[in-house]
């Protein structure tokens, strides 16, 4: 068994094929998966006073929901396939967080789905896989649908 | 936003006349208010003997000076650190998703930046001459220490509830802080503060804003009944604060900062276009600050107007900012004090100064070609201006000399600023309301409905004495709040000392930058 870690940028159950592909690869090399779900967030947005007051409560709710609806089932699915997995929810910019996590963990590969990267918006503003292609510190696999 | 008294006359001119029946109701309400509250309003805004400087403005300025010295010029020593905090250099990445320093600052600013920066400055320069700008900047700089003090306390003594929501503000630091220091009278002062806050929120934070918003709209599209504006704004506000329609609030919260930035940019462009006159304008400001340049009241006239505008525009000492800032996620209350001290800087030192410079440079103040001095309109008690306009109209005239489209933009900005100020004050009022009557959906709805009704009243009526009374309430908040700040400032000093020590020793982590 290797000590390798693969980071999987996981959006939701629609990205299960990414998870499954990462599991396949991990099985071959004996790596473990670090599944990360990022909630888009910028500390420079503007909120009303009411939103400020409720922010901590909302964040707790958001995290709980993401944990039970997204991360827990994903970790279960990977473990059921016989691969070690850990899940994490983070707030921020997806590309930035994924790249930074891979670096911090010393991960050897990143897996990411193509997601909605074909629309006009993605062409103008870029998408997560395009962004990762530019900044990822380790080899990155873009898994098509 | 504390422009009301000076603009009351302007409001009177601009506010539309409602139906005859409403007029008589106006008159009745005005008379009742004048009869029963006039003495209190007179007391709050009373001038110091032998001057035309109200003691309440002195109260605010003296407090700002005391805090400045007590905290060793924190606004200068801590300025760079404040900016680093806002940038998030000291924010734990694991706390992402919580209220950031930037967000708390932006929200608090959207409650204060408004008519005071546009109309209030025009009034100050119109009466006190360019020199008023100098004293306005000085007062703004000192006011930063007041904000530092109140916002540190706001975070330190806020209530955190099991469901994760927070409530903070002077009423909380008055009760908890007084108890901690073994001081008597905390609960009474806190209740008093809340009563003043509720009445101030309904008046200065609501009726006056609605009134001015309507005045601006009718200036641009022509006269129409004020209740129409009132009902529309009240309906939108109702949807936001009762219906929880966050999208509108979010749009406003996004557009208002953008408007503020745009206003500063336009000012900078005008200054660049007149770059050769900037030196002259500063010359006028400095010379006027100490000589008055022949303006009535001379040196003291400029000083009084400048101090008054600054104190009334950035709300330092009123206690409202402490309510807005207390929601931030931080382990160190002092960090929010640092961030809050940027508020008077942005509001007064930057935005108000821009307005003043543009007014001076564009030459809308009439100058006597023979003497080179400003022409004094003795009848109106101010400098004679092009078209003899005052307040918002003077600012509008100055900016339109460079850009003809500016008045339309300014009208939009005024309406949006008024709306965001109302949203902020509905929250401040609500916090005071729930402090008095307890939390609970039904109790909160009562306040919110009252708040919306007052928007309609404010927009359709010209209730001078009512607005004066509400102004008096806002400054009464400052009396209670500043007394509490004096008594609690040793606690802030303790917090600051410990924080600076740990910052030096590297115990406080800097995550980036």
Automatic annotation (TrEMBL), chain A:
Domain called UspA: residue spans: 7-144
Pfam families per UniProt: Usp
Recorded family membership: Belongs to the universal stress protein A family.
The protein's name: Nucleotide-binding universal stress protein, UspA family
Species name: Lutimaribacter saemankumensis
Automatic annotation (TrEMBL), chain B:
InterPro entries with a match to the protein in the record: Na/Ala_symport
Subcellular location: Cell inner membrane; Cell membrane
Keywords, comma-separated and alphabetical: Cell inner membrane, Cell membrane, Membrane, Signal, Symport, Transmembrane, Transmembrane helix, Transport
Gene Ontology cellular component list: plasma membrane
N-terminal signal peptide: 1-22
MF terms in GO: amino acid:sodium symporter activity
Membrane topology: Multi-pass membrane protein
Transmembrane segments: 53-74, 186-204, 224-243, 255-275, 281-304, 345-365, 402-425, 445-467, 473-492
Any Pfam family: Na_Ala_symp
Keyword Transport: yes
Family: Belongs to the alanine or glycine:cation symporter (AGCS) (TC 2.A.25) family.
Name the record gives this protein: Alanine or glycine:cation symporter, AGCS family
Organism: Lutimaribacter saemankumensis
